[in-house]
Amino acid sequence: MKNLVYLKPNVVIEPLIERWYAWSHLISPSTAAMNITKRHIEIMNSYLESPELHSEAIKDPKMLGGPFMDFKEDRTKDIKSLMESTFVRQKDLIDLSIAIRRLVLLLNKEAKGQSLEDLYDKVPDILKGYVELVYDLNGNPSFRFYEQLLYKSKFYNKENQSIALWITNNDSRPFCLSTPRLDEDEVLHLNIPFEHKFIDEISKMKRTPRPYNEIREMLGDLNETEEALFQKFFTEIPSVPYVKYEGDCIRMRYFGHACILIETKDISILVDPLISYYGYQSSVEHFSDYDLPETIDYVLITHNHQDHILFETLLPLRHKIKNIVVPRSGGGHLQDPSLKLMFNNIGFNNIIEIEEFSTVNFSDCQITGIPFTGEHSDLDIKAKMCFHVEIGEFSLLFVADSRVLEKRLYEHSQAVMGDVDVVFLGMECDGAPLSWLYGPLVVNELSKEHDQSRRLAGSDFNKGMHLVNTFNPSEVYVYAMGQEPWCEFISSIKYTDESNPIVQSNHLVNECTSRGLIAERLFGEKEILYKKKNKK
């Protein structure tokens, strides 16, 4: 390849940690440790005991998103090898997980309201200096991590990170939290950390060509087969040109799930990026990364779930993003790791932490954090935020998966913020039980009854209508339903017309429409232009 080349539009840059799909709980050392022992190792053990069980389970739609590996053929030998590698390469994190469990049991047994000072001597040795023992005001014992120190320790190992390059021709993929990425003929594995500049430089080549040798020189040695595969990811065919929005309106583009792009001719804001690819036939019309501007002023992250923080989308966009706004965490608790620290440690240095009702101001735009309740199984998690975006005098409220647990909270919020023009509301109102996402972090026994009652659920009709009645929008859009085919590998959601979230959201859309409001459940892609109202 002697001429200038582009990266093909449907090349996937898939981030992995020890061959498992990288999501936020695999970055923070404490949550990573717990997921390795109570998710990865347990799933691998289960597969090795009965690959046939996994093969049958993945055929059952009711088992979608369950702890079953999705392979087309028997991969027992490969999983055994991955298991052996895990015990060697992840030994420090496995030891950390064991120590965390021992600490929880220690506090259960011995912290009865007396001073905790004497218990520091009994803290597992590898945790000493990394945790503070605490009570809440009612005498319940707990602990918090000095999370920054964990990132500086042996428990954060960038050598466990890698990327897989491959070409996608459809939206079908196994559920990523249960199925590791094993060796395949058309997948190139590169052992580089997520902060590596190679990711930025190769991502730029989707729009800006450069000599093949320049990008090739950023890698180490490749064998003949790997070299040939790497060359397949490039083309001399020019990319689709991006046309910058230069209109006088506010343009809203829906990219699928909870991903919304808000643009004027001067600013761009991208919410919860999860974006599909260009260059292949899809069953659903959709925008792709080719429809993003050259510079994204602000990315807004609503909460720390795998379908709202997607590194597969964010890492290739890193060179475009000026700022990422994240909710501040609670300060070192296992279930609530710092998003700022996480992003900082994978190469994002432009992170703005905000709390409820704090603001970010730029140009004629103001971004304000609004309380996000529910959808986190009643756990003490602070890193979740709705966003109120005001451009001139036009306002949009992104509620994400917030569930209205106390009506007066949003009534108080409306008294501060005022009415809004547009509400975006998630209505996945059934949700998975606590154990589906947070189970690996739980040490004490969790009864099935409690597990099933504490769900990752968004708003239903009644709770959604309370938001409509409170903020008085002229337009209401149901989003973040995970219905698009390119979301299934991360959300594991498949609805029918009888599914409760569909029934509930239909009811809300119909009720809003009957009142003369514009209302729709978004799917695939959508573009709307709003007349900009300048502040008086």
Q: SSE layout and pairings?
A:
Blueprint: E1 4-7, E2 11-17, E3 20-21, H1 29-49, H2 51-57, H3 76-89, H4 91-110, E4 131-135, E5 141-145, H5 147-151, E6 161-167, E7 188-190, H6 197-204, E8 210-211, H7 212-216, H8 224-231, E9 234-235, E10 250-256, E11 259-263, E12 268-271, E13 296-300, H9 311-317, E14 321-327, H10 339-344, E15 351-354, E16 359-362, E17 365-370, E18 386-391, E19 394-398, H11 407-417, E20 422-426, H12 434-438, H13 448-453, H14 461-471, E21 475-479, H15 488-491, H16 500-514, E22 518-521, E23 526-530
Parallel strand pairs: 12-13, 13-14, 14-15, 19-20, 20-21, 21-22
Antiparallel strand pairs: 1-8, 1-9, 2-3, 2-6, 4-5, 6-7, 10-11, 10-23, 11-12, 16-17, 17-18, 18-19
Helix pairs in contact: 1-2, 1-3, 1-4, 11-14, 14-16
Q: Whole-number radius of gyration?
A: 23 Å
The average pLDDT is 96
For the report, how would you describe the main beta sheet?
7 strands, mixed
Low-confidence blocks of residues: none
Beta-strand residue percentage:
15-25%
- SS-based structural class? alpha/beta
The first-to-last residue Cα distance is 58 Å
Overall shape: it is globular
Count of beta strands? 23
What is the topology, as strand order, of the major beta sheet? 15-14-13-12-11-10-23
Number of helices: 16
| Helix amount | 25-40%
Structure description:
The protein has 536 residues and is of the alpha/beta class. Helix content is 29%, strand content 20%. It has helices at residues 29-49, 51-57, 76-89, 91-110, 147-151, 197-204, 212-216, 224-231, 311-317, 339-344, 407-417, 434-438, 448-453, 461-471, 488-491, 500-514, and strands at 4-7, 11-17, 20-21, 131-135, 141-145, 161-167, 188-190, 210-211, 234-235, 250-256, 259-263, 268-271, 296-300, 321-327, 351-354, 359-362, 365-370, 386-391, 394-398, 422-426, 475-479, 518-521, 526-530. The strands form 5 sheets. It has a 7-stranded mixed β-sheet. Strand 18 (386-391) and strand 19 form a beta hairpin. Helix 1 (29-49) packs antiparallel against helix 3, helix 11 runs parallel beside helix 14 (461-471) and helix 14 runs parallel beside helix 16. The mean pLDDT is 96.
